[in-house]
Amino acid sequence: MTNHSKKCEQNASRGALRSILTVALAIATTGCTNLSAVGDISNSLSMASSSWNNVAGDIAESCQRRLAISSSSGSCDDQLAASQGLATANNVLRAYFQALGAAANEANFSVGDGLNEVVDSVNAIPGINTDQVEAVSGIFGFLANLGTERLRERELRRLIDDGAGPAQDVIAMMDELLVDRFRLLLDDEERVLNAAMVTWINANQPSIGTSFERYCTSPIAVFVNGGGDASSYALLQEYCGRFEVLTERRAAISAYEKSLVTASQALQELRSNRTELSGRELAGKLYAIGSELDDHIGSVREAFG
Amino acid sequence: MSDTIFDQVAELCRKSAHASLDSLMELGPRPSGESEGILWDIQARRLRNQIDSLSNMASDLTARAILLDLSEFKAEMDAISEATKKAKESIEQIKEVSRKLSKFARLLDLGLALLALPTAAGSLATLVPAVSAAAKAGRELAKDDDGAE
Fold it and tell me: What mean pLDDT, rounded, does chain A reach?
């Protein structure tokens, strides 16, 4: 082979490489997408719906706590059915959020890993231009990823069009119709607890009065000095513990309510920006909403240990 | 909050239960006299039973109201489930496209790599092992594709 023909082949090869690079660059500059913000918010929403099951489960648990100190018998069948119904609704939402996350998550579709395996064996060919091989495989990997990203973005838009509105409706129902009822159920538990406590104090420990809360965090000596019977201190602490659980649950419901509002905001942003899902502006908003949502989820989880 | 018949009756129960709790608190400490003490016990027990029974009923009715509201959102939940199901199917299809693109990219890699080969392989001594290694790479690619399918 003459020097001239060698150069011609090298030039042809470089020309092909240059063409591919040009096409890749053109696609990259006109449509480089990044759905990671959508993926992250979907993960936060999925975790939120999981934490909501704690609140749903507490409908039945509150009933059981109440019956444990109630003077009249009863059952928690209705409360259990409500807990299960809400858990089902939460699971429907979680599956939807997970599907959003799956479509947005690049790792589910990346072709890069598969390419790397073959690049190694191609590089083993004697006399091969390794830089060229790696550059070319990088370009095709990039193009393949870009192609699937377009498909993912289209699927995300369809998922948002079909599901985000109904999901917002269900979340709004939880906010508007359930939150106040959760509070009423805790009121029922507290009333029964108060009745038990007042009866016990007036029958056995009248000297400490019905404002017993001041003894909840006090050592036994303070309780005894206030006229309490030392043998009743453990029972008092048991009541105090039950009131503390109620306080925590009320705080959890506030955090739950905020998480519902924040989750709905996230879905609204996705709906409003459905044609710009990879845009920076949306990403900024979603990260801010996701951070807020994570805080509320943390509070709900903390209240349930 | 919606106002179902369950909510309305539950509210009445709660008001009555609250009034009974006020009455229980107004009883004050148990008197030390025997007959007064027995009367206090009877009144306290009756009021506590009222509070507990009314609270039970209020809680049951509220739980039913929750179930009723949930059932009214069945259409929305069905729509979400349907969208999720379709998305899962589409995601699988996109994964398949991704796999096929990967295969195509690998074939192009190998082809371009072989295209570049003669520029460096100037003699028979270097060409033979080069072709042999290229064939090995091709076999690995074919094996990998078979495995993928």
Answer: 81
Residue A66 CA to residue A92 CA, distance in Å, equals: 30
Q: What is the pLDDT of residue A289?
A: 92
Distance CA B52, CA B60 (A): 12
Nearest to B90 by CA among A6, A303, A102, A24: A102
The reply to whether residue B120 touches residue A122, judged by beta carbons under 8 angstroms, is: no
Q: Which of B30, B56, B82 to mutate to test the interface with A (most CBs of A within 10 A)?
A: B56
With contact defined as beta carbons under 8 Å apart, do A293 and A258 qualify? no
CA-closest candidate to residue B80, choices A173, A99, A162, A90:
A162
With beta carbons under 8 A apart, name residues in chain B contacting A99: 83-84, 87-88, 91
Is the Cβ of A147 closer than 8 Å to some Cβ of chain B?
Answer: yes
Contact A234/B at CB under 8 A:
no
How many of the other CB atoms lie within 10 Å of CB of A257?
Answer: 20
Question: Closest Cα to residue A118, out of A103, A100, A138, A104?
Answer: A138
pLDDT digits (tens, 9 = 90+) for B21-41: 999 999 999 998 999 999 999
Q: State whether residue B107 sits within 8 Å of chain A by CB.
A: no
Query: What Å distances lie between residue A272 and A27, A64, A155, B86, CA to CA?
Result: 25, 43, 16, 22
- Whether ipTM tops 0.85, in short, is no
Determine the residue of chain B that is closest to A168 in CA distance: B76
- Pick left, alpha or beta for residue A75 (phi over 0 → left; psi -120 to 50 → alpha; otherwise beta): beta
* Domain residue limits, chain A: 11-27+34-303
Angstrom distance (rounded) from CA A22 to CA A3: 28
Indicate yes or no: pTM above 0.90. no
Closest partner CB to A72 (pick from B56, B106, B141) = B56
pLDDT of residue B136: 65
Q: How does pLDDT run across A160-184, given as a tens digit for each residue?
A: 999 999 999 999 999 988 899 999 9
Tens of pLDDT, residues A29-64: 444 447 889 999 999 999 999 999 999 999 999 999
Per-residue pLDDT of A276-291, as tens digits, reads 888 888 888 889 999 9
The token pair that represents A207 in the structure block: 């000297």
